[in-house]
Design goal:
about 50% helix; alpha/beta; 6-stranded mixed beta sheet
Length: about 220
């Protein structure tokens, strides 16, 4: 804990510490080990307060406080989500939709996302994608067709369609006012996605403890 706190103190020397969005930027820098990564984080969509940068963080904190499910694309992201500070069920998409993938030839993660959506698993949930661009594309289609997650964190990594998949999430986020946190560029990955999900949990814990107040939900 002392090492982690010292590390975050160093991060705060380079990243602003004024808003909820800044907390996400700080965590992204801490996770990626790159001070410049703060400039790559994107905040889109709106909550009941408005469409400012803090909206996805507020929405995520509310979802944690409401014990909404957290659904990840793959096992690695699920493993990185902390088990402390919340009572949310954490599950993964991969492993579902096997028959659909075999029948259509789509990727296992895309099929898994569509299968979970058919069961309503993304509605009002925190959906975190850290690995598979096809999972992000599939989720974007689900949102376009009416699914409304509480917040989306999309950080798939790689050279094939990763950037495009995050841009697609931003597109539907803006169009349908679904709060989302994404980034630009080829980097990202499971560690970043899990770290930012954990920061939403930490924000919710601070709200619960009365350390911060987001639109009057400080004490529950």
């Amino acid at each position: 804990m002392e090492i982690a706190e010292t590390s975050m103190d160093i991060v705060r020397q380079f990243v602003p510490d004024e808003t909820l969005a800044d907390r996400i930027r700080q965590k992204s820098v801490h996770s990626m080990g790159d001070i410049e990564f703060q400039h790559l984080i994107e905040f889109t969509g709106a909550d009941g307060v408005g469409a400012d940068e803090d909206a996805p963080v507020r929405a995520g904190a509310r979802a944690v406080l409401d014990e909404a499910p957290i659904v990840t694309d793959i096992t690695m992201v699920k493993a990185g989500v902390t088990g402390r500070g919340h009572d949310c069920e954490v599950s993964k998409a991969i492993g579902h939709g096997t028959e659909l993938a075999e029948k259509t030839g789509m990727t296992r993660t895309a099929a898994a996302m569509l299968e979970l959506d058919k069961d309503g698993r993304f509605e009002d949930a925190i959906v975190t994608i850290g690995n598979a661009p096809t999972a992000a594309f599939a989720l974007a289609d689900c949102i376009e067709n009416g699914t409304r997650p509480a917040v989306v964190l999309a950080h798939p990594v790689g050279f094939v369609k990763a950037e495009e998949s995050r841009e697609r999430i931003r597109e539907v986020s803006r169009e349908h006012d679904v709060p989302a946190i994404t980034h630009v560029g080829r980097r990202g990955g499971s560690g970043l996605a899990a770290a930012l999900t954990n920061e939403l949990i930490h924000v919710a814990s601070d709200v619960r403890d009365g350390a911060i107040d987001i639109d009057g939900i400080a004490s529950r």
